[in-house]
Amino acid sequence: MPILARAWIGLLAVLNGAVPLFFLPSTEAIVTLVAFFAGALLMMAITSKVGFARLLGIGHFLWFPLLAFLWTRLDLYPASTPGGIWIRTLIAANAVSLLIDVTDVV
After folding, report:
1. How many separate domains does the chain show?
2. Which pTM was predicted?
3. Domain that holds residue 19
């Protein structure tokens, strides 16, 4: 896998799986972690059936409702706060990832 792809996956893992730990017990952090780990389980199941394939993007489809939920919470987290920076960065990164995933899966 190209280095840029590995770096991108690493960034997504940090934003979705590590950074939320700093914001526990907020609802936004919990919902993000649940979506991240549920997607990881789905991707492991897909990998066990078909191997490393473009279908793995299906594992990120839980991010559609996650992004909708986070969007509704933006007013609770000003952009100048750590939580506001994280949520806005997460929304942007996951939205880009979903564009890539939808293209790959289709």
Report:
1. 1
2. 0.90
3. 3-105
